Amino acid sequence: MCLFTHVAAGALAGAYAPNLYLAPVFGLGSHVVLDMIPHHDFEKMTVEIILALIAICVLAATGAMAPAVILGVLFGILPDLENLLWKTGRIRDEQKIFPGHVGILKHGAPAGISSIYLQAIFTVLVLLFLVWRGG
Description:
Elements: H1 3-15, H2 23-35, H3 45-61, H4 67-77, H5 80-87, H6 99-102, H7 114-133
Helix pairs in contact: 1-2, 1-3, 1-4, 1-7, 2-4
């Protein structure tokens, strides 16, 4: 999934974690679940990073960034740090360690560009919900 989708899902997962200590686990779990769904990613991560930063700014500017939400977001996007390092040539493919990136967990099949629109709709709806809810 795109990074902005992981931001939204991680935020939602963190918001519904039963306590602050489980928010990172829920955020990381959201990454695993989303990556198993067939999806399309942008070729260049720059677009994904910009959209993810916009989503984070919306949450922060509206006061929806409770500590559990922050942890959910951070751990929801953490696995894609290795994708960034891989796409920029800083690590090789065989140096990846996240189970969904090395084939231990089945990664969702590539999907058409229309899945980007579905991810954007999901992200907007989650952001609106969290802003309305207050984090």
